[in-house]
């Protein structure tokens, strides 16, 4: 530890004064261990006895405390003196200029092991293929350590880019090769770097009026002016989108057409065709977020917009957070190679590259077919959990909640009777250990649409049954005060079911 010592006076007093000043500045904090007297003497170039005299003086004044066999520490009960001239107390902030404001994430309620988070949009961590991933990681690092433990391309590990392209071609019908793929740390990063690369300050970007707030934040931070567009049982209202563009030209659209977030409705075929025609006519960038394509239960999944994009205007964004786990931080963007090159430059400035070893391990899981086998198992499991939740809601809350089984996704969107005090209900349920996300969390204007988002994927049927029993027991028996209708097209009859997780 280096200390600036006063040039005049006894050396022990200069050392004591310098340590006192460091404590008062907050550079040494209560409870922090000081270097040994020998180490301080060597660093400061003085005799050890001089340091011992300084420490004795500080201990007498109450600035430090000695613990036998442990060392010397800054006192946890400092003397009651104010800061000296030009000094600030340790608790003062270290930066005087406030940062640019960003909307805070939703508050996370305190939980314990018994809490059932019906609001947490994640897969079941108990079903994570730990052994498969561990073996793949060891194989990858053992074979290619010199390549994986150094700097790599910002576009991502080349074999993973190729594996993702092959998987997306096969499973989703999107014509892509490795050079069309950018690997990112989650789909949130993919959206962020695409927005920064493609948008200019002041560009108008259409978003679904019921949607994903972190995506809206990313677009705003890229300088976009957001224009909310209504959502109904057929997905995004393309006619309303066309009217918004006619009023003032739009640069881009952010949309979740496969499983609309959070209602999980699928955009109808007619609207998909109308959207493709509008995008081509208006030269509209389409940011398509297909965050949980793998989980479809009734029939075949609808092909992404990117699978029928003759003009090359769709940026296709996806994630492995729902397939594996959000903690792995793996997402991707698929676009024409010139766009990928431009976006990669932004990614390089932000994050340089991803975790090459993890990317190599996941590339092996895809190449070996293990990832698709895991997806098939989870699809069967989550469908059973979806059915269990819908059955429990119908049986125990049939008069209060309308829930239809979603065709896909890992959560559902349930409409609530208008005479229920939703805020009081959710607060009472949370006090009993069941946390549910209110629909207002997803409306553009913050209005309450009279709906709940209930995540079923990480919970067993028995856990879901118990959670619904708590909701039934805490349901208010008195009518709620009038609920104002949500604006910006986010009406409470937006969708029949389903919700996706707060993801990325």
Provide a descriptive summary of the structure in words:
- Helices cover 39% and strands 13% of the residues.
- By secondary structure, the protein is of the alpha/beta class.
- The strands form five sheets. Strands 4-12-11-10-9-5-6 form a seven-stranded mixed sheet, with helices on both faces. Strands 13-14-17-16 form a four-stranded antiparallel sheet, covered by helices on one side.
- Helix 7 (213-221) links the parallel strand 5 (204-208) and strand 6 (225-229).
- Helix 4 crosses helix 11 (356-367) and helix 5 runs parallel beside helix 11.
- The longest helix has 28 residues, at 370-397.
- The radius of gyration is 28 Å and the shape is globular.
- The model is unreliable at 83-92 and 482-503 (pLDDT under 50).
């Amino acid at each position: 530890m280096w200390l600036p010592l006063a040039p005049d006076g006894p050396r022990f007093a200069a050392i004591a004064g310098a340590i006192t000043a460091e404590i008062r500045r907050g550079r040494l904090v209560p409870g922090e261990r000081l270097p040994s007297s020998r180490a301080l003497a060597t660093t400061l170039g003085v005799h050890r006895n001089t340091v011992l005299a300084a420490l004795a003086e500080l201990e007498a004044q109450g600035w430090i405390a000695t613990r036998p066999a442990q060392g010397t520490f800054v006192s946890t009960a400092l003397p009651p003196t104010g800061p000296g001239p030009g000094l600030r107390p340790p608790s003062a902030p270290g930066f005087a200029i406030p940062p640019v404001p960003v909307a805070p994430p939703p508050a996370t309620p305190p939980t314990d092991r018994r809490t059932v988070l019906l609001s947490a949009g994640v897969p079941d961590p108990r079903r994570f293929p730990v052994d498969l991933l561990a073996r793949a990681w060891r194989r990858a690092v053992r074979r290619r350590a010199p390549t994986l433990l150094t700097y790599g391309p910002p576009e991502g590990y080349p074999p993973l880019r190729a594996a993702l392209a092959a998987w997306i071609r096969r499973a989703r019908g999107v014509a892509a090769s490795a050079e069309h793929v950018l690997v990112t740390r989650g789909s949130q990063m993919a959206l962020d770097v695409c927005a920064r690369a493609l948008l200019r300050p002041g560009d108008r970007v259409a978003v679904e009026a019921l949607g994903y707030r972190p995506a809206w934040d990313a677009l705003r931070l890229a300088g976009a002016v957001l224009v909310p567009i209504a959502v109904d049982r057929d997905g995004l209202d393309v006619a309303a989108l066309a009217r918004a563009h006619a009023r003032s030209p739009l640069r881009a659209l952010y949309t979740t057409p496969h499983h609309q977030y959070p209602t999980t409705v699928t955009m109808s075929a007619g609207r998909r065709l109308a959207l493709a025609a509008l995008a081509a006519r208006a030269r509209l960038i389409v940011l398509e977020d297909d965050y949980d394509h793998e989980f479809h239960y009734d029939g075949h999944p609808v092909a992404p917009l990117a699978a029928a994009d003759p003009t090359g205007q769709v940026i296709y964004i996806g994630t492995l957070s729902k397939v594996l786990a959000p903690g792995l931080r793996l997402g991707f963007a698929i676009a024409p190679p010139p766009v990928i090159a431009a976006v990669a430059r932004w990614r390089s400035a932000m994050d340089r590259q991803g975790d090459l070893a993890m990317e190599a391990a996941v590339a092996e899981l895809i190449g070996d077919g293990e990832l698709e086998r895991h997806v098939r198992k989870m699809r069967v499991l989550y469908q059973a959990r979806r059915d269990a939740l819908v059955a429990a809601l119908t049986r125990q809350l049939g008069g209060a909640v309308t829930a239809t089984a979603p065709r896909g996704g890992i959560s559902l969107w349930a409409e609530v009777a208008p005479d229920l005090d939703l805020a009081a209900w959710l607060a009472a349920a949370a006090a009993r250990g069941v946390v549910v996300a209110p629909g207002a969390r997803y409306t553009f204007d913050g209005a309450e649409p009279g709906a709940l988002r209930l995540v079923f994927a990480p919970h067993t049927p028995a856990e879901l049954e118990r959670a619904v029993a708590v909701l039934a027991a805490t349901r208010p028996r008195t009518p709620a005060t009038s609920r104002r209708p949500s604006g910006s097209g986010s009406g409470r009859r937006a969708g029949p079911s389903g919700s996706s997780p707060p993801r990325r």
